[in-house]
Amino acid sequence: MLWGSTYDWAVSVSETPNHELVYLSNTGSFDGNVSGAHGYTDFWVFHTDSLGNFLGGNCFGGSDEDLPHSICVINNESYLTTGETVSFDGQVTGHHAEIGDCTGFDCRDIWTAKISFVGTNSISETPSKNEIQISPNPTKDILRITTNKFPESVNVYSITGNYLKQFDLKAMNESINISNFSSGIYFLKTENGTVYKIVKY
Fold first, then answer.
1. CA nearest neighbour of 22 among 84, 83, 77, 92
2. Is 95 within 8 Å of 85 (Cβ atoms)?
3. What φ, ψ does residue 103 adopt, rounded to 5°?
4. 19 vs 4, which has greater pLDDT?
5. Who's near 156: CB < 8 A, 6+ residues apart?
6. In terms of pTM, does the model score above 0.85?
7. What is the largest CA-CA distance in the chain?
8. Which of 7, 68, 89, 108 has its CA 20 to 30 A from that of 152?
9. Contact (Cβ atoms closer than 8 angstroms) between residue 62 and residue 69
């Protein structure tokens, strides 16, 4: 049984191309199998193998009420979730009401989030808040990174979620050398938690 100590209820379950199962749930828990909770209720996305063994998961949302409705499997590692939110913070951005405008009525927005699982780690991607620009991607050796936030450190992870290396960005335009990496897919994560997929050939 997968659980937290408060309340958890399932919304849907889908099969990934590699025959794992991904579950979309709503939770108010902060313990048990539930990790990364933000507040009142959250989207809780987790996945299991075909036998139901827990492989990892995380919560997504803000400090108020976030109610999931559906999940779409994009590929083995990426899913698109949609629901409604009252939150103005956490991973929720672009809420159309202003804080303080909701007195006496319920300010709900539709919230869609793309979620990528890297090994047993899960990361919510927010493409509308691109912190950095990366080119060329794919690359065989050098990645050119443009950022408006520096100094900053970025970490590179393997496709299975293993930490590989940290690069320090000390100027608006920096180059990092990944020529010693094997060909494949990697993830670059900023200090703010935004994740970028990079391909080495």
1. 77
2. yes
3. -65, 125
4. 19
5. 163, 164, 165, 166, 167, 178, 181, 186, 187, 188, 189, 198
6. no
7. 59
8. 89
9. no
